[in-house]
Fold this protein.
Amino acid sequence: MYNMDRLFEAVQGRGHVCVGLDTAAEYIPPLARGGPGAVLAYNRALVDATLDAAACYKVQIAYYEAMGLAGLKVYAETLAYIRSRGALVIADIKRGDIADTALRYAQAHFEGDFEADFVTLSPYMGMDSIEPWLSYAETRGKGAFVLMRTSNQGMRDFEYLELGGEYRNCRVYDAVGARLSQAARPGRCGYGAFGAVVGVQPKSGAEREEAAGIRSRYANLFFLIPGYGAQGGAAEDAALLLRQGNGGVVNASRSILRAWEAELKAEGRETEGPDCPADIPFAADAARRAVIAMRDAIKKAAR
Amino acid sequence: MYNMDRLFEAVQGRGHVCVGLDTAAEYIPPLARGGPGAVLAYNRALVDATLDAAACYKVQIAYYEAMGLAGLKVYAETLAYIRSRGALVIADIKRGDIADTALRYAQAHFEGDFEADFVTLSPYMGMDSIEPWLSYAETRGKGAFVLMRTSNQGMRDFEYLELGGEYRNCRVYDAVGARLSQAARPGRCGYGAFGAVVGVQPKSGAEREEAAGIRSRYANLFFLIPGYGAQGGAAEDAALLLRQGNGGVVNASRSILRAWEAELKAEGRETEGPDCPADIPFAADAARRAVIAMRDAIKKAAR
């Protein structure tokens, strides 16, 4: 059984939320801050508090690399903790390199200290930077999400360029989607082991049409959907990238990690210094409420 | 003074070779193998043996990540050793992620445990995934090489696609090159702090013309040139990507790391098992000879 089938089932049972553990030190309540150890304790508490309400977790390795070797130890321990609780974890590493190197990376992130259930990949160098991961994934049941159309402003620079020649009337991201879709061998759930990263593009009519087009053209690709919440997207925009109530997980990071802060601000209370009342249990409860609200909003919009 | 100026000077003085330390366990002579510690000892010996003949070093992090946390410690120690010897090191990490995340990555690789002089970056997500590195680099004198047109087969999948619209008659990699070239603020040496990865494309007339065109269009970008040696490119092909005898470093990894093996094979001697005569000094000498031969071949071709 592929992890993508397990993820599909998780969405069926617990909704679409992917909890992003991009845990910067300052996202932790002041009283609970204190280096890499505090990050690990925070991650564990948030995982425990959201296990039955989230589809999966995503850990952004950059936040851990920034703390050096000690940070990468916490990264490894966070992945291991999530997996020990029976949940699925996406290593957000956006790797992309040629064949031999890709195999080393696959070894690094599909087994050993940094073993994850899914990785994120960058397609720039071409399909021979993706395929070594795919064959590795198929022998171990793993999966991946390849960057296709992201949700940042800069996505217009290259992902969005109009193509000529055989891809006339398409954009760069469509060429990526088409190749991924061709390579997909759908598992039990109808989706291939490798899906795509397709971000929420909020608001305008044209963008809604585009989202619906992407979802229908790449029906065998499961989507990892960033850009919700902190990046401005709403449940209705995210729902355009879902398919028959499944087919994607929607990531939120800061709005969950910092839910304690939003709750305190809403009540006019201190969020910094010794008078800030938030501790880890408070933050974990707030994160749980944020996940449930997000889950319910997306479920409603996806109907 | 920017690292790109220091690299320019290194090329003036010591030629164009970038020694790639993609040190897989099996690239080390059998007698000297033995886990992460052996990799560090091997890297140190090769650095010592090539310091006066190489322009710089490039460390491919995938090979270290594949050994888990212990491997990343060796990665950090290899970078530190190269820098302690006064040489420049490129962290081959091919990162590419949105603004906040890019800043964390820059912190990870421009300071602390993993401090390098240059990094490699992937442009897929757009210029807002590059710019945070650039502002960070400018305050600390660091540099980067952004993937533009690589040397693997798969580069034809996306990098090479023909564009329409404003970039009619251009390819995706040209859009990347144009944006990088626009953003470049040339330092003392005439090149911006951020250059491009442009691979050797061996052989045909059309490809030689293309290489010459790339070199002349992006005159303010210093090139990191992979694809030499193991990937089939020759000195003449690499020289097409140089400019006035400078403007690029040419990477070789396996042909240097495994030079001991090539020398033994040429003499019909054992390369595996207890009868293989190579030890670390033997391998370091062979690596030095390989670097000098490559340096001289490129110098000759670049005239």
Q: What stands out?
A: The CA atoms of residues 260 and 283 of chain B lie 5 Å apart.
